[in-house]
């Protein structure tokens, strides 16, 4: 801002301004001059700024916040200058753009979760069954249609249950299941009890049952062979008694193994003999063996000397 220099007013203008104010009479020759201010009925003289305005009427003093004066420092330059067209602009994104952004974020989140779950599942250990080979059939056995009494007895004993066949003079003859350690009396009771004509004197009701054996409740006058002891094996217990003297098999107490040992009798025919005995209770005579399907007169003649009741 250029400095302003005060200049003295022109002589003619000063006289024109001061002329009307000469209202105070000049002092007399006595030398008295008034010391106080001029009377107020005249015109006051303008100050120095009036003289400046009168001297330069076209100049206007600079003002405003951006004006740089003697005591005002200039503003520092801005780092970023926003163009005039962008000043006051408001960003308004479209709805489709916002929706697309949200869909992208959701898809990325779901994909990330699936990848994490798949990685955890792949890292988890998978238990392998013992003994499983490449084909999955290693160690697998095919059960036989007619299992031996020994295997059946072992399986039943391991499960805590004994299976016995109660026949003879009982109300409901057949196969019964009892807990391990049960007595013959328990088997007879489970079969409905003995009939009034049963000869219980020949039966040891206090004997411990052996899994797979047959309990015979005879009628009066019927001869009963010796029963197996508590330590008998499953094969011996299944028949009650084995082959008698001379290799004779008791049809009412023999199991599938003992019947299979007879000449001309195989596993299938031995099972048919057991099925007939289960259905009818017991053999009352050797001739009833001919009622079993598959036993003809020729085979019957071979078995007469090998079996008994």
From TrEMBL:
In this chain, the stretch annotated as Disordered covers: 1-80
**Looking at the keywords, is RNA-binding present?**
no
Query: Tell me, which GO biological process terms does this entry list?
Result: DNA repair; protein secretion by the type II secretion system
Give the transmembrane ranges: 96-118
What Gene Ontology cellular component terms go with this record? Answer: type II protein secretion system complex
Give the molecular function GO annotations.
Answer: DNA binding
Q: Which InterPro entries match?
A: Endo/Exo/Phosphatase_dom_1, Hlx-hairpin-Hlx_DNA-bd_motif, RuvA_2-like, Soluble_ligand-bd
- PANTHER family the UniProt entry points to: ENDONUCLEASE/EXONUCLEASE/PHOSPHATASE FAMILY DOMAIN-CONTAINING PROTEIN 1, ENDONUCLEASE_EXONUCLEASE_PHOSPHATASE FAMILY DOMAIN-CONTAINING PROTEIN 1
* Name of the protein in question: Competence protein ComEA
Q: What is the lineage of its organism?
A: Bacteria, Bacillati, Actinomycetota, Actinomycetes, Micrococcales
């Amino acid at each position: 801002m250029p400095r302003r220099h005060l200049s003295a007013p022109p002589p003619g203008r000063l006289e024109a301004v001061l002329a009307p104010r000469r209202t105070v009479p000049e002092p007399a020759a006595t030398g008295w001059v008034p010391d106080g201010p001029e009377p107020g009925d005249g015109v006051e003289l303008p100050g120095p700024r009036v003289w400046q305005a009168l001297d330069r009427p076209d100049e206007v003093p600079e003002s405003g916040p951006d004006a740089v004066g003697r005591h005002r420092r200039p503003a520092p330059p801005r780092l970023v200058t926003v163009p005039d067209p962008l000043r006051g602009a408001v960003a308004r994104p479209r709805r489709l753009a916002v929706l697309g952004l949200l869909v992208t974020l959701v898809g990325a989140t779901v994909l990330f979760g699936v990848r994490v779950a798949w990685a955890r599942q792949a890292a988890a250990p998978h238990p392998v069954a013992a003994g499983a080979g490449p084909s999955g059939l290693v160690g697998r056995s095919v059960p036989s249609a007619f299992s031996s009494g020994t295997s059946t007895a072992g399986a039943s004993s391991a499960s805590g249950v004994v299976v016995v066949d109660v026949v003879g003079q009982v109300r409901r003859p057949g196969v019964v299941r009892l807990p391990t350690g049960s007595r013959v009396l328990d088997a007879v009771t489970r079969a409905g009890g003995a009939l009034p004509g049963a000869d219980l004197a020949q039966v040891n009701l206090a004997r411990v049952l052996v899994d797979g054996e047959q309990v015979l409740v005879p009628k009066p006058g019927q001869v009963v062979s010796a029963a197996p002891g508590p330590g008998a094996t499953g094969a011996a217990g299944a028949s009650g008694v084995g082959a008698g003297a001379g290799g004779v098999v008791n049809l009412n107490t023999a199991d599938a193994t003992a019947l299979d040992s007879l000449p001309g009798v195989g596993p299938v025919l031995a099972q048919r003999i057991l099925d007939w005995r289960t259905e009818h209770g017991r053999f009352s005579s050797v001739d009833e063996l001919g009622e079993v399907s598959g036993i003809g007169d020729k085979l019957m003649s071979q078995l007469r000397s090998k079996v008994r009741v």
